[in-house]
């Protein structure tokens, strides 16, 4: 049976022929129902496949050719726009189409108590994590064995990541309704792991407000083809080759991502509004104070001991942060869209995020892998995210991607990350709905 394969999807654009691209693009201003209800695929046959192709050509920029299943499997590629249902000749589902529901419908499906913030409960998680961090450090320093240190680094780095997630909740206001409490706790938690609380809080707010937008998103956003090809080979290699992307966060804090200027420490950075300068000065001063504390401890305890107790766990924490935040927006089996222009909306951008299962670590890092509902409604406390997600699933339908169960440890996610870094390199410079494309020279 023949089926349509779109080998490289660009984006939606006004109806016109694109010179030199061999593709036709069109506006997708049709109602959501018309886009998502392409109904069922015609059963089989060349004529049916051609009809499907004509329908796609009106909405998505793609090469005008049909590829057989045999041909496709021989190449080991699949269409980023055709899901398993389409491949089996079943109901067609386009993840890039406007959903047939609104944000209010999702909100209405979530129980009211899921929105309630309990500051005592939130503080209990802070107390738990801080005690574990101090206990691990004390135990490792006392035992001081090279049989123990690697275990300590993995455990403590994971706990640093847990502290970050609680500080992240403070930044969203999901920690409590008390802004001063959120600020104090957030500064203590984030500064302790060398994160400028307000600087990161504000840039992360930008990420949530523009999730899924090619140019405006702030966290692991795609590079347009022109910008990608302007990077030197070494920069591309470092950005897309393991393990270097797992060490990107400190550099991002100082320089942001390629194509974006500014620093999380500079109150005059374009990241921030003029009325936010005092906030940035406060968080930068807190960060510098923590650097001073670490310098003093290094003088007292010695650089080797501080390297073992703090520096290596910090690097493990950075790896956790980079991996988790990347996998929230990349690496699904079917490629997911990114948006520009009128095709972008807060809802459609949020639906391109992904839930991930981290096994028993879910509880340790406060269910941050339950990410779709968190992105749509960041005010929901982390301890209600699972219940809220279960309640919203009937509304989300096929727009919700069920995470693969990881078992005790999420080791399979390292494979997902590595494979995505090999394939997801850039998106088209044009088009309002675009998908990641692969630089063959990097594979």
From TrEMBL:
Give the main location.
membrane
The Fatty acid desaturase N-terminal domain covers: 1-138
Q: Name one GO biological process term.
A: lipid metabolic process
Q: In which pathway does it act?
A: Lipid metabolism
Q: Which UniProt keywords apply?
A: Membrane, Oxidoreductase, Transmembrane, Transmembrane helix
Cellular localization per UniProt: Membrane
What are the annotated GO cellular component locations? membrane
Q: Which GO terms describe its molecular function?
A: oxidoreductase activity, acting on paired donors, with oxidation of a pair of donors resulting in the reduction of molecular oxygen to two molecules of water
Short name of one Pfam family: FA_desaturase
Query: Out of the domains of life, which is the source?
Result: Eukaryota
Q: Where is the Fatty acid desaturase domain?
A: 145-400
**Membrane-spanning residues:** 125-143, 149-167, 280-302
So what family is this one in? Belongs to the fatty acid desaturase type 1 family.
Identification of the protein by name: Omega-3 fatty acid desaturase
Native species? Digitaria exilis
